Amino acid sequence: MVTAWIGYDIATAENYLTTGSEASTRLTKSILTEINKRQSLTEIFTIPDDVEDLPQPIELPTITDITASIQFGGFSILRGELNWTPAEDSRIIYRIFEQAEEGDRLVGGEVEGQGSYTISQINVFQTGEYYVVPYNPLTKQTGGTIQCSILKV
């Protein structure tokens, strides 16, 4: 590895630089060019076998088209079905939340790369408001939701 630093230990009125970091960049490039003329730098370095390429970045969508419906059948007779348009990247995890007065809560569900989620137990005497938040497992960041959907029986 080659690095270069150009400057004074103490800058004074007589001793100071008139250029910025481009001077050390030019010096480093000059050193590497001379080394490459004597011995090819690309022939020296080989990538180790156990090194993997970084995955492509994940672009998180904003969920704008969530819909909710009631389905009959299953273990609890009534269940809720949430649907939205998933992004093309199947690595995105979608987390499902229910809005509540005491604070929003994770419904207990995450789906990876899909555009639907089934809420297995819903209260027939109370409506619920739900929203979906996309999550990037590589960077641990969340995306946005600008719409909630209401389940009504």
Give descriptors for this structure:
3-stranded antiparallel beta sheet, alpha+beta, Immunoglobulin-like, 153 residues, 32% strand, 14% helix
H and E string: HHEEEEEEEEEE
Helix and strand content put the structural class at: alpha+beta
Give me the CATH architecture of the largest domain, please.
Answer: Sandwich
Q: How many runs of DSSP E, i.e. beta strands?
A: 10
**Any low-confidence stretches, pLDDT <50, length ≥5?**
none
Strand content: 25-35%
| CATH fold topology of the largest domain | Immunoglobulin-like
List the helices and strands and how they pair.
Blueprint: H1 22-38, H2 41-44, E1 62-63, E2 67-72, E3 78-83, E4 93-99, E5 105-112, E6 116-119, E7 128-136, E8 141-142, E9 144-145, E10 149-151
Parallel strand pairs: 1-9
Antiparallel strand pairs: 2-3, 3-6, 4-5, 4-7, 7-8, 7-10
Protein name: Multimodular transpeptidase-transglycosylase
Q: What would you say about this model in short?
A:
The chain has 153 residues and is an alpha+beta fold.
Question: What can you see in these coordinates?
Answer:
The protein is of the alpha+beta class and 153 residues long. 14% of the residues lie in helices and 32% in strands. It contains 2 helices and 10 strands. Strands 4, 5, 7, 8 and 10 form a 5-stranded antiparallel sheet that branches. It has a 3-stranded antiparallel sheet with strand order 2-3-6, with no helix packed on it. The longest helix is centred in the N-terminal third of the chain and has 17 residues, at 22-38.
